[in-house]
Design a protein that fits this description.
Elements (H helix, E strand, L loop, with lengths): L3 E8 L4 H14 L5 E9 L2 E9 L8
Antiparallel strand pairs: 1-3, 2-3
Amino acid sequence: MGKVTFKMFRGTWSSWASLFREAADFANSLAEGQLISISHSADHQDGVVTVWYRLRGAQKEQ
């Protein structure tokens, strides 16, 4: 199994729909079996969506 890593999508000016769309587009670009989960959090107007995934072979973090 590969190393666990993540990619964050964050924006105080982005809508939740926009943040989730960006995260979903990234998750869809991963190879089958790489995606672990997608999480989200909010603090006032600051939203964060995080895609957790496994690196494969010599793949670099994005």
